[in-house]
Amino acid sequence: QVQLVESGGGLVQPGGSLRLSCVASGLSLDYYAIAWFRQAPGKEREGVSCISSDGSTSTFASVKGRFTISRDNAKNTVYLQMNSLKPEDTAVYYCATDPGGFCRYGTDWYDYWGQGTQVTVSS
Question: Which of these, 62, 71, 113, 121, has the minimum number of CB atoms within 10 Å of its CB?
Answer without folding.
Answer: 62
